[in-house]
Amino acid sequence: MIDYKSIRDAVCKGLKEYLNVPVIRNNQNAEPPVYPYLSYTVTTVASQNKGTYGEYSDGIDRQPVKQTWSITAQSDDNDESVTLASKAREWLEHTGRVYLKDNGVIVEQATNITNRDNIISIEYEYKNGFDVVFVLFDEVERPDNGYIEKADLIRR
C-alpha cells in the first residue's frame, strides 16, 4: 500500500521549510493563512499501472505508480506569487531531490508555471502554479504461499 500520509507530510514539510511559508491543502472549510502561502491538491492519487509487482529480497513486492499534485503559490502581490511558484518548482526538481528520495518520493516532472489568478469580491488574488508528477512505490507484503517440496509425476 502507498503510505499517502508520509508522502504528503514529507513533501509539505520540505516545501514549508525551504520556502518559509505555510503549505496547505486546497478545498478546506478553514480560513486560509495570510499571504503568501502555497496550496496543493492531489489530483491523481495513484495512476493506473499496466505492469506487475516486482519481488524484492526483503519480502516486499513493489510496483511503481505515479501521483500528480497541483501546486499553487498564492499572494496579494503578483511578483511574490511568481517567485514563490518558481522556488517551489526549483526545490522539487533540484534542491529537495535527495530529501524527497530519502522519503520515498521521486519527481518525474514538473509542468510549466501558469497563471491561475482569481478575483475575490473586490480584491485580486494572484495565483501562479504548476503540476508535479511523483513516482512512488505501491508496496505489498508478499504472502507466504508455501512451496512444493516434492511432486510425483506419472507418465502415461
Give a verbal description of the structure.
It is a single chain. By secondary structure, the chain is an alpha+beta fold. It has one domain (4-141): 2-Layer Sandwich (Alpha-Beta Plaits), CATH 3.30.70.1700. It is 26% helix and 37% strand. It has helices spanning 4-19, 78-95, 97-102; strands at residues 23-25, 37-44, 54-55, 60-75, 106-110, 114-115, 118-120, 123-141. Strands 1, 2, 3, 4, 5, 6, 7 and 8 form an 8-stranded mixed sheet that branches. The relative contact order is 0.22. The model has no long low-confidence stretch (mean pLDDT 89).
Annotate the secondary structure layout.
Elements: H1 4-19, E1 23-25, E2 37-44, E3 54-55, E4 60-75, H2 78-95, H3 97-102, E5 106-110, E6 114-115, E7 118-120, E8 123-141
Parallel strand pairs: 1-2
Antiparallel strand pairs: 2-4, 3-4, 4-8, 5-8, 6-8, 7-8
Key structural traits:
single chain, 156 residues, alpha+beta, Alpha-Beta Plaits, eight-stranded mixed sheet, 8 strands, 26% helix, 37% strand
Strand content: 35-45%
Number of domains: 1
Count every helix, treating DSSP H or I runs of 4 or more residues as helices: 3
Structural class: alpha+beta
| Annotated CATH homologous superfamily | Phage minor tail protein U
Helix proportion of residues, in percent? 25-40%
Mean pLDDT across residues: 89
